[in-house]
Specification:
- This protein is an all-alpha fold.
- The chain is about 65% helix and about 0% strand.
- The protein folds into two domains: about 5-85, MazG-like (Helix Hairpins), CATH 1.10.287; about 85-119, no CATH class.
- The protein has helices spanning about 5-15, 25-40, 50, 60-80, 85-100, 105.
- The termini are far apart.
Length: about 120
């Protein structure tokens, strides 16, 4: 489903329940972070090899999918409330990142863009 269609379905879901009244920009940002913490919780106290197997177990895959979806849905609500297109914002950010991290300077490197001039 395209982001615009997903946003419209989400707004319909929200409006059918009269929840827009609770969706101030601040509340949405807080909720996004709470959902991101639930996603992070899936990795708590696990080794890298344990985390790598999350998608192979049906239960943990479902949890990974659900928490990721919650994060996406809150991002869509934030973008809607703030009045910008999330897909366009992501495209623009990718272009900015490409300028900050040119392939010839950062290939295979984990350095932050501010440190790339030293390489």
């Amino acid at each position: 489903m395209e982001l615009q269609a997903l946003t419209q379905a989400l707004l319909k879901f929200r409006d059918e329940r009269d929840w827009a009244q609770f969706h101030s920009l601040r509340n949405l940002i807080v909720s996004l972070n709470l959902e991101a913490a639930e996603l992070l919780e899936l990795t708590q106290w696990k080794s890298d090899s344990d985390i790598a197997t999350l998608p192979t177990n049906p239960d943990t895959l479902e949890a990974l999918r659900d928490e990721s979806a919650d994060v996406l849905l809150y991002l869509l609500l934030i973008a809607n409330r703030a009045g910008f297109d999330l897909g366009e914002a992501a495209k623009n950010k990718l272009e900015k990142n490409a300028a900050k991290y040119p392939v010839e300077k950062c290939y295979g490197s984990s350095l932050k863009y501010t440190q790339l001039h030293d390489t």
